[in-house]
Amino acid sequence: MKTTSVSHKRPHLSTIHRSASGFTLLEMVIVLGIIAMIMGGAIYLMTGMQDSAKITQVESDQKTYMMALERYRTLAGQYPSEQQGLKALVDRPTTAPRPRKWSSMMDRLKEDPWGNPYVYKFPGSKKKNQPEIISWGEDGLEGTEDDLTSQE
Q1: Residues 102, 76: contact at Cβ < 8 Å?
Q2: Residue 134 is inside which H or E element, if any?
Q3: Cα angle value 27/43/53 (rounded, 5°)
Q4: pLDDT tens-digit series, residues 46-59
Q5: Which residues, in sequence order, are CB contacts of 147 under 8 Å at separation 6+?
Q6: Strand-by-strand arrangement of the 119-121 sheet
Q7: What is the pLDDT of residues 84-131, one digit of tens each?
Q8: Residue 43 φ then ψ, to 5°
């Protein structure tokens, strides 16, 4: 009967010494550089996502205002005048046209994500029979590219 011998391979001393020494300074610098690049890319992408989130917030606020204005019209018989504005959703108007029936539609008026008040127009710019809710966007200036209207 033939016997086979099992040989155990032993690591060389140089291998043991290298694995026990840890990372070299160069390896750590390379890893930190890679992490910095990944973080930079993530921050860049998150900036674009913040802008997108603000635009989504404006669209949501505009829909909320439009639903409240529809409820107001149902009770009052008409939309608030431009002079009465969105404040008519919070406080009963004291100027003409006074609503037939009135109920507070909102606790308070919201500002757009850039801290500016929403603008109310009636009649709207494009749909004359409907109100329009406008955010002047990040720059807060009327008539610029970043304006967001409920009539688009």
Answers
A1: yes
A2: strand 132-135
A3: 155
A4: 666 667 889 999 99
A5: 134, 135, 136, 137
A6: 119-121, 132-135, 148-149
A7: 999 999 999 999 998 889 999 999 999 999 999 999 999 999 999 999
A8: -65, -40
Q: Is 52 exposed, middle or buried (0-12, 13-18, 19+ CB in 10 A)?
A: exposed
Whole-structure pTM value: 0.68
Other beta carbons within 10 Å of 64: 15
**Domains identified in the chain and CATH numbers:** 58-149 (3.30.700.10)
Cα torsion angle, 116, 118, 119, 124, sign: positive
Cis bond before residue 97 (omega within 30° of 0): yes
* Bridge partner residues of 135 (DSSP): 148
Instruction: Report residue 13 as tokens.
Output: 């001393």
Q: What is the DSSP letter of 146?
A: T
